[in-house]
Specification:
Blueprint (H helix, E strand, L loop, with lengths): L7 H30 L3 H30 L4 H15 L8 H15 L2 H5 L12 E2 L6 E2 L14
Antiparallel strand pairs: 1-2
Length: 155
């Protein structure tokens, strides 16, 4: 039996974007430490704060991107979260701006992801004569019901 399709493209864009945002945040933290040791306490606190925020945003984008793979049914919520956090990261440099842009693309891809378009037209393995594949969600189910038990779409 074939498994559900996963938003791999959205995951990859979001993963790379989150990594870049995280790396930039860590670099800001290191620069803040160097600036502080040079005697510029105010600048150190400011740069360190930017680094902490960027690191946090990057880490959360990474976590949510992994969530896309393990829970593809929640792709819209995960995509919106990635989109908002990536846009927010642009205020602190956004992973050299490239990470923020990649995160935005990944978030949009996750929001518009449609697993059912992949399932249509692709043969699925059947375990019996009464097994059916839902045209909307692409899941295989047994029986002769008039609606899919997963998404309630008429079949």
């Amino acid at each position: 039996m074939t498994g559900p399709r996963r938003p791999v493209e959205a995951f990859l864009f979001s993963l790379v974007g989150g990594l870049l945002i995280l790396v930039e945040g860590v670099l800001f933290l290191a620069v803040g430490s160097v600036v502080g040791s040079a005697g510029y306490a105010g600048a150190s606190v400011f740069i360190g704060s930017l680094g902490a925020l960027a690191s946090l945003l990057g880490f959360v984008v990474l976590l949510v991107a992994v969530g896309l793979v393990f829970q593809p049914a929640a792709h819209r919520g995960f995509g919106l979260t990635i989109l908002v956090l990536s846009l927010a990261s642009l205020l602190v440099g956004g992973g050299f701006y490239l990470g923020g842009v990649l995160g935005v693309v990944g978030g949009v891809l996750a929001i518009v992801f449609d697993a059912s378009s992949f399932a249509r037209g692709r043969p699925t393995l059947s375990t019996g004569p009464s097994d059916r594949t839902c045209a909307r969600c692409g899941k295989l189910f047994a029986g002769d019901g008039r609606a899919c038990p997963f998404c309630r779409a008429a079949v």
